[in-house]
Design brief:
Layout (H helix, E strand, L loop, with lengths): L1 H5 L3 H26 L3 H15 L8 H20 L4 H32 L11 E6 L9 E7 L2 E9 L10 E7 L5 E5 L8 H17 L1
Parallel strand pairs: 3-5
Antiparallel strand pairs: 1-2, 1-4, 2-3, 4-5
């Protein structure tokens, strides 16, 4: 193995070194990203690189650069095996690496969008009407829970009230404010009661009769 490597020319050596190191790190990064490990450190590195480069869409990140060097190395080796010229080998390997960066940037972008879509944004609960699930103490004396529809899903969330009387289980409430740490501030309200169709007809008939009598 050592003899084989030492007999290689300079350019193939470079491509093999880049391909092997890049592949090992790439597999580790993908394992961390998709299995779950300590991905926060990698995310911090990505943010630092992205902010320094000033490139949007998370194009220049640690993960994407590793992907670039991995594909750069292996495509270069393939070009050398195909006996292409040195300039053409370099051009093809660079383009292949850049394409890999674009693919990875798009992949992680859509993954992050899917993750964000499922994240609760408490601001979306503002003005929502719901029901007290666990009694809320008067004047923020004790925390309770309310059931409100947020982002298309009914959720049970912590809540306080400025009301001078407790809001008991079953009371109809409206979210009037949200604290910085995500606790809802609610106040008692009433659902608008719509008359039934028969009641509306009877009411309309009564009004017509009054007009006729006049």
């Amino acid at each position: 193995m050592t003899d084989w490597f030492s007999n290689l020319e300079f350019l193939p050596k470079v491509y093999w070194i880049v391909a092997i190191i890049g592949s090992v790190v790439f597999l580790g990064v993908m394992l961390v990203a998709f299995v779950g490990g300590d991905a926060d450190d990698l995310g911090d590195v990505d943010n630092d690189i992205d902010s320094d480069a000033g490139v949007g869409f998370q194009f220049i990140t640690f993960k994407n650069l590793i992907g670039f060097f991995t594909i750069f190395g292996w495509s270069g080796i393939a070009c050398i095996d195909a006996e292409l010229s040195t300039p053409l080998t370099i051009i093809i390997s660079v383009i292949s690496g850049l394409l890999m960066m674009v693919i990875m940037a798009a992949l992680f972008y859509f993954i992050s969008k899917l993750s964000d879509s499922g994240t609760l944004n408490y601001k979306n609960a503002l003005d929502a009407v719901g029901e007290v699930y666990l009694t809320i103490g008067a004047d923020r004396s004790s925390m309770g829970k309310v059931s409100v529809n947020v982002q298309g899903t009914v959720r049970e969330l912590d809540a306080l009230t400025d009301s001078q009387t407790p809001l008991k289980s079953g009371a109809i409430i409206k979210v009037v404010d949200i604290t910085p740490n995500g606790i809802l501030i609610v106040d008692q309200t009433r659902k608008p009661i719509e008359p039934s169709s028969s009641e509306r007809n009877a009411l309309q008939q009564g009004q017509n009769n009054l007009l006729e009598n006049k």
